[in-house]
Write a structure and sequence with these properties.
The complex is a heterodimer of chains A (295) and B (290). With 295 residues, chain A is mostly helical. Chain A has 14 helices and two strands; from the N terminus they run αααααββααααααααα. In chain A, strands 1-2 form a two-stranded antiparallel sheet. The chains are: A mainly alpha (295), B alpha/beta (290).
């Protein structure tokens, strides 16, 4: 407000040497805001800094252990150095084969996980609502649940006509049980007072299911999806290593067979990044679907 | 609104020969026995009693959540067979849907009634405006204070235009100051809507301040020990709580409840004495008792 007025009078503007008059009122305001921003985001900035430092430390340790070929209970003699892995990474991103492996794994995850969600969530909801369905399905599920997906590999190969289908089936199985169990758990925790409130407001069975049971279970459904996605990757990689011809798990195993040690680490890191990325996608979907839970 | 005259005649609650018992391994346990209550159209009636006396059981039976073991519950002559939107209910735990905004919560009953989206949004806004909550229509309940949550709970129960409003210790979870404000808000709303109210509380002041009539229940198995008319003039003001009339009513009710609470703690012999007293006081006004 005052600075343009000062500027109109030429002698005053010259006397106050422009920066002295015009800038001071702005800069404190700006820096106060910046300071406040820093103060409000202190915790987040701190974890960001510590997290970055920790990753850098990890890389340095890895670098030192491999360049000096440390042997201390574990042998780092053949372990590839981070720079070697980086070199094979720059090569791999231009290699259509590597990208195909990744895409194929993602496709298997997508199909297997989606099927598990499409079957597991409704089944869990129905089991939570109808006692008979629960009584029929639960014992079978409890017997099958502790069997690790990898143990299903031979059976899956017998069950399905193609290799591809059996791998997707293994992925499906891995994510199915966490999704089912968590959905069911969410259903048992629905506050009965909310159901009574809905009934008092004229809601019938279908509406209660849609408007109360389903949204009330959503947080647990998303816990199930997150856990299920993790197990889906575990199962997929195991299945690809055992019976696959393509996929990032196969790539990693093949690298070992072909004595391309840098590619082993590259494959592992790729799996880690893909796993992290897919759980971030689920978390983002959760925040989108449950706006009342994000602050 | 144009049919105001016939509307005010609606909402007659009648509970006759009511008894409710639970089946346990040791046999049936009587929660409520031999109970008669009624609420006239547009009347504000409270039920007070020691904890565990079955006052909430009685209210839940009127709401249609519990079936009486014997006796009948009717509203405007038709028997209650299950919960319905014509009997609005307000719960102590607020019971707002956390995944719905304040306005969506209020809209819920209208949505269930099949009202189109645009209409019910407008209706909900109007109601929230009356309750002074229009600024919070897009908030999720988690972000509201207890008093605000319960105002939304009351507005939600009233949105469908029920014949009767049932409240189960609605202000029990609120602090003393908020509770007094909420009582004032509720009387103001009731005064305007002239809806029949059945209100369950263990707070004697609250019951006297709000009601036209108060039923006092005996300790378990619960039955009506006394029925007290509250002749305080309307509209009720907070200052009335200091009047000698109010204090006399309070003293009477207090001693009735204390007797029952002592008996509830005292064990078996109480059953006999309690029933005797129940018969003695049934249907009398507090003036007779004092």
């Amino acid at each position: 407000m005052s600075s343009p007025a000062l500027m109109t009078s030429p002698d005053q503007a010259a006397a106050s040497a422009a920066p002295g008059a015009a800038i001071p009122p702005r800069r404190p305001a700006f820096s106060a805001r910046t300071l406040r921003w820093f103060r409000l985001n202190q915790d987040r900035l701190r974890s960001l800094l510590v997290g970055t430092a920790s990753l850098i430390l990890f890389l340095i340790a890895w670098h030192l252990l491999t360049t000096y070929r440390v042997v201390f209970f574990v042998k780092f003699t053949n372990v590839p150095a981070p720079l070697a892995v980086y070199a094979s990474f720059t090569k791999a991103i231009h290699d259509p084969h590597f990208l195909m492996h990744i895409l194929l794994s993602c496709r298997r995850i997508f199909i297997g996980f989606s099927l598990a969600a499409v079957v597991g969530v409704p089944l869990g909801l129905i089991m939570g609502r109808f006692k008979l369905v629960h009584e029929v399905v639960f014992p079978v599920a409890e017997v099958l649940r502790p069997i690790p997906a990898i143990a299903w590999v031979p059976m899956a190969i017998m069950l399905w006509p193609t290799n591809e289908q059996s791998i997707v089936f293994i992925t499906f199985l891995g994510s199915f049980f966490p999704i089912l169990v968590n959905t069911l758990h969410g259903m048992t925790l629905v506050d009965p007072v909310l159901v009574r409130a809905a009934k008092c407001l004229g809601a019938r069975e279908a509406a209660i299911f849609r408007e109360v049971y389903f949204p009330a279970s959503l947080p647990h459904i998303f816990t199930g999806l997150t856990v299920g996605m993790g197990v889906a990757w575990v199962s997929l990689i195991a299945a690809e290593m055992i019976s696959g011809q393509f996929g990032i798990g196969y790539f990693t195993w093949e690298a070992y067979s072909l004595v391309q040690y840098a590619d082993i680490a590259l494959g592992m890191i790729a799996i880690g990044v893909l796993g992290l990325g897919s759980s971030l996608v689920i978390r983002a979907a959760g925040q989108l679907v449950m706006p009342w839970r994000s602050r | 609104m144009s049919q105001a005259a016939p509307d005010t005649r609606q909402g007659h609650i009648e509970v006759r020969n009511f008894a409710l018992s639970y089946e346990t391994i040791d046999g049936a346990v009587e929660a409520v026995t031999d109970t008669h209550i009624h609420v006239e159209p547009g009347e504000f009636v409270s039920i007070v009693g020691p904890s565990g006396c079955g006052k909430s059981t009685l209210l839940n039976a009127v709401a249609g959540f519990l079936k009486p073991t014997s006796g009948v519950v009717t509203v405007d002559g038709s028997a209650v067979t299950g919960p319905s939107a014509e009997r609005g209910m307000v719960f102590q735990q607020y019971s707002l849907f956390p995944w719905k905004t304040v306005r969506e919560n209020v809209e819920f009953g209208l949505k269930m009634g099949g009202m189109p989206k645009f209409e019910r949004e407008r209706a909900a806004r109007t109601l929230l405006g009356l309750a002074g909550l229009e600024a919070f229509e897009n908030h999720y309940p988690e972000r509201l204070s207890g008093g605000m949550k319960q105002r939304v709970g009351i507005v939600r129960a009233l949105a469908t235009g029920p014949k009767v409003l049932l409240l189960d210790e609605p202000f029990g979870a609120l602090d003393a100051q908020t509770r007094i404000i909420m009582q004032q808000i509720l009387t103001n709303m009731w005064q305007r809507l002239k809806i029949s109210v059945l209100f369950v509380t263990h707070d004697i002041d609250e019951a006297i301040f709000l009601s036209d009539r108060v039923y006092c229940m005996t300790a378990r198995p619960g039955s009506i020990k006394a029925e007290i008319r509250i002749p305080l003039e309307r509209p009720r003001q907070q200052s009335m709580m200091m009047s000698s009339e109010f204090l006399a009513l309070r003293r009477g009710l207090m001693s009735l409840i204390r007797e029952e609470s002592l008996k509830a703690m005292g064990g078996e012999i109480t059953d006999l004495g309690m029933q005797g007293l129940g018969i003695e006081f049934q249907g009398h006004s507090i003036a007779d008792v004092l």
